[in-house]
Amino acid sequence: MQGKRQSGLLSNKMDVNQAKQEHLLALKVMRLTKPTLFTNMPVTCEDRDLPGDLFSRLMREDPSTIKGAETLMLGEMLTLPQNFGNIFLGETFSSYISVHNDSNQVVKDILVKADLQTSSQRLNLSASNSAVSELKPECCIDDVIHHEVKEIGTHILVCAVSYTTQSGDKLYFRKFFKFQVLKPLDVKTKFYNAESDLSSVTDEVFLEAQIQNITTSPMFMEKVSLEPSMMYNVSELNTVTSGKESESTFGKMSYLQPMDTRQYLYCLKPKPEFAEKAGVIKGVTVIGKLDIVWKTNLGERGRLQTSQLQRMAPGYGDVRLSLEYIPDTVNLEEPFDITCKITNCSERTMDLLLEMCNTRSVHWCGVSGRQLGKLCPSASLSIPLKLLSSVQGLQSISGLRLTDTFLKRTYEYDDIAQLLHLLVLHDTGSLWRKKQHLR
Amino acid sequence: MDSGEDAAQRPLTLDITVIGAEEPEAHIPSEAATISSQPNATDTLFQEESIDLDAEAFVSPQDDSGASVSVMDKLNDQMMESVMISDSPNSEEDDVPIDSLLEQAEDKQSLDSKELEDDKEKEAKQEEVETGTLEGAPEARGEPEGSSFAAALVDKGEAEVEVNENDSTKEMLTSSHVTAGTPTSDSPEGQEMMLEVGEAAAADAAAEAAKEEPIPVCTIFSQGMQPKTLVPDGFQPTLVKSPSFSCGANETPNKLAPLVCQPSPSLSKFFADNGTVNPASDFFDSFTTSSSIISISNPNAESPKATSAAPPERQLSSGSSTVPSTGHQDGGTPTAYFSTAPQDSAPKPVVGPAEPAATMTKLQAVFSGSDDPFASALSMSEVDRRYDAWVPSEETRRVLISVATQQVNPVYVERDRLSMPGLKFDNLQGDAVKDLMLRFLGDQAAMKRQVLTANSVEQNFLGLKQLISTKNWRAAVDLTGRLLTAHGQGYGKSGQPTSHTTDSLQLWFVRLALLVKLNLFQNAELEFEPFGNVDQPDLYYEYYPTVYPGRRGSMVPFSMRVLHAELPQYLNKPQESLDRLHSMRSVCQKILANLEEGLAEDGSMMTLTQENRQASIQLWRSRLCRVMYSMANCLLMMKDYILAVETYRSIIQYESEQSVQLLSGIGRIFLQIGDIKMAEKYFQDAEKVCQEKGRGQAQETAVLMNKAFVYLSQNNYAEAHTCFSGILKIDPKNPVANNNAAVCLLYLGRLKESLGQLESLVQQDPALYLHESVLFNLTTMYELESSRSTQKKQALLEAVASREGDSFNTQCLKLV
């Protein structure tokens, strides 16, 4: 390939001790990112052209081409890493550490220590901490270290070598290799609270997670899953199932180009035991955390988890009013029934009084100001109500008032549901309505 | 998410933690933020949380006391920083160590006169560069022979000058390159002009010479011409003419181009051989007269000479009424140089005034030897039609029709519709290997380096092929430059009308292909520029009814079109490449459709024999495949993996015998992305095809290779190594398996073994292993192994020097 080749060899231009004395041992460190596949550049001609079969012969003789398909650019030849590259949070930092005896004498009791200094801690990465008893000239001590990077920012690999010369001098030197760990992903989350289904009391929560690849290379998202907290069950909404086949919403190839963003959607349902106490789920709740596994060149792997995602549950106040039944179609100026469910979300028992106030379009039928009786904490109560609408178009059902006679506190419920009254030709009496989720 | 909501929401700061990291201590700072930023969320139904990894949130290291911190601070400058990966093929130019180059240049100058012929030539070039610098390209500093990109840099600098200069200054610029020579001119006015300019140039040159080196001697000529002693003052201003211009200048219908020719620097030196007059025609004859060799070496290249020398063929293959009279070849006859008058009809040998008749007889003698001109002419025209077919754009087609129907004389075709190529540089030559040897191994060792140069081979196609096959591509580029100069498309001729021949376009193709092979993309782009979309009317045979009577189709070889289309992708313009490739693909498809409808390739009504039709369909299918390959490669470079994979897959249906390679290749693309499951799926498909084909060595190798790559991507280097070794049991000489096995050993912590393996490979079979990729791996391991890597790299350099040509990419040795 074109381009100036460097290796991943870590260069350390200043060795603190080197200035003072020559050492018998040399320490070299190379970051082992995955090797890359050599790409060749096909330039072809036809037999009839001036070079005849020369170009194709040259390409066939080139060891890096694919035999039989020389015009295929991506070869099979592995080349060692060309530079240090970037390292990202969650990836594994691997490095080759080689201590070579450059001198012509046998060196004894060699101890090589590799530590990684991060901004918060110091980790020992050496495979073994025991000393090598002797090292002959032109021989090496090799070590390959691995470390999963868990912090961003500056990291320093500190390699220390101590040894004894033939004359019995104990010598010691250190080398430092600094690198920056960068952030690979940008994650944004957003919660959507679904209004309760008519049949259930509890709410589903939808989580949209935007994950952006902020590295410079394409990234294959092997796994992006939501690990829910104990209160929730999660279902992933990132595949479309048709028949037996389920297809990813992201198409066949699950990779992210640099700076590309992808949205993942999850639906969280409170577990039944928590759902019973729906009124209790309020305030800040822990939803869970995202677990992200990605791979890049030749399977270089990275993994991150977000911290616990938290959500502010919608406040229902002390008393919650939800709809249990509402008809599909209503006729203009014809009474219809709805069923309301009233739940006591507070910690105390309430004694409730229901009032119904007519609005411009909605007319309640029945007695206003009726007693509903006592309602214990977390208990709920269903009440059928009758009303009629006098105006076409999109109308809100409003005007319910609940008063807690113990505390003399009144709760107002407006915009409980919206009705779309469509006047259909030939059928003037019937109104089509569409319930829309409120809130 | 829509932004309106975003604005309304309050972002919470979270942090990303890694599994296994001690969470509490890792994100205390930001957790505080999380809690504090919980607002009265009663009305905020949606929340957006941006998860922010904030480096600042961390405190500085608390351990190791102040000592370690101070060490860290002290090291801040010296420490390695992570390097951004850049894919730009051109980015290396930033890396050119200009200082070292200049240093090198100084060394060079101290070596002066005892140098070999080659070195003198190189110095000549160095001088040219300096002249260029004086002319106003101060940035173009560097040593031309220093390294491949030093040359590129210089060329670029020069190119900039050319682009910026207007015509007149360009004339000045180029004329100043004319350092020595003798006036030879037929056109008095031209001569006068040239003399004036030339004198000025001579003054310049003399000034240069005074303060610098002896004037370089031209060594371009044939082998016999050994360099003679330098006579620094023995030069005089001269007009050097391209042979094709020798036919005089009156009758020029529109004085568009100045008749003064501006010879390129090195050519001027060529002609100025120690004060001896070497008329252009001599040089030209040096390869025209050896046309017998041309026809042997390039039997398929339909020789225009054949056409002009064998009138019967012409009459057979066309109904054209214009039968050129070959008799009155006369250098003195004034004709417009771009006229297609019969006397110019032997397009390549544009014969100089010196000995036209002699040349002509020689040419005729060559072609009279052919056994059966009729039969060969017939079959030739079949093959010609098949290979040359192309569908020009509507506009070009109209021009061609009007030329064919003699409504328009080609002379009157608008100038801006013509391609007017010319060399844009000619100071490329150099041998980076030798330079490195000079620097690291000394003069003695460098003396031993023997490579073919443009001078050491015959000045014809045969010599060119010799240079290409010995991998002396730089020298080959030089030779194409000379041959094109002789054709009148030399340095500075860009923008001047010229007539093309089959051979001249083949030369252009070879030159541009080699430039691309040498990674000199900018240079290639510059020289491709006059060809535009490779669709000008003068690039079609129909434009030259007298020269190529009855012949139709594109003079531009198909491979050159592919090259033209591929080039922009190497210059960070992949979209342009794709556009060009798409239009090529549609032409190929059109031609295939025509053939299937029973028409000729270009859609004309013509009855083809079944045999011919089949041959044609086969050819155009393979060409379509070639274009598809280019598209897929380009998409891969663009990292548009989805489309790349799709395109490679679509090739399988045309080239089913390549399906194993293609399926494996697609698998490797998936591995590159990181999608190992898909990769395995494609590898399984490849294996299935292998099983159908039976268990050959190639199949087993392919299967094992793919397995090894899967292990590799699972970080299982031990198993990968086993697989690569398995391939070596079947095919011990497999270079890829050998190299890859060695790479695996390194990842297993077995540096010495790995090194030993690669080293012995390079020693035992240098032909296979003196390859860029292997050497790069080897030198990287040397660097890792000991502090004495430089000596070991120098040993590699010696190995390279004894085997490789001047096109060797020395960067992989990592000596500089």
Overview of this structure, please?
The complex is a heterodimer of chains A (439) and B (816). Chain A is mostly beta strands. Chain A has two helices and 35 strands. Chain A folds into four domains: 112 residues, Immunoglobulins (Immunoglobulin-like); 44 residues, no CATH class; 128 residues, Sandwich (Immunoglobulin-like); 104 residues, Immunoglobulin-like (Sandwich). In chain A, strands 5, 7, 8, 9, 11 and 12 form a six-stranded mixed β-sheet that branches. The N terminus and C terminus of chain A are likely disordered. With 816 residues, chain B is mostly helical. The longest helix of chain B has 28 residues. Chains A and B meet through strand 1, strand 2, helix 1, strand 4 and strand 6 of A and strand 2, helix 2, helix 3, strand 3 and helix 4 of B.
Structural class of chain B: mainly alpha
Q: Please state the average pLDDT score of chain A.
A: 82
- Distance from N terminus to C terminus of chain A (CA atoms, Å) equals 59 Å
Strand order of the largest sheet of chain B: 1-3
The chain-level structural class of chain A is mainly beta
Question: How much helix, percentage-wise, in residues of chain A?
Answer: under 10%
Mean pLDDT level of chain B? 66
Helical segment count of chain B: 36
Q: What is the number of E strands of chain B?
A: 5
Poorly predicted regions of chain B are 1-15, 17-371
Helical run tally of chain A = 2
Strand count, sense and barrel status of the largest sheet of chain A are: 6 strands, mixed
Question: From the 3D coordinates, which CATH architecture of the largest domain in chain A would you assign?
Answer: Sandwich
Approximately what portion of the residues of chain A adopt beta-strand conformation? Answer: over 45%
Number of E-type strands of chain A: 35
Shape of chain A: elongated
Assign a percent range to the helix content of chain B.
55-70%
CATH topological fold name of the largest domain in chain A: Immunoglobulin-like
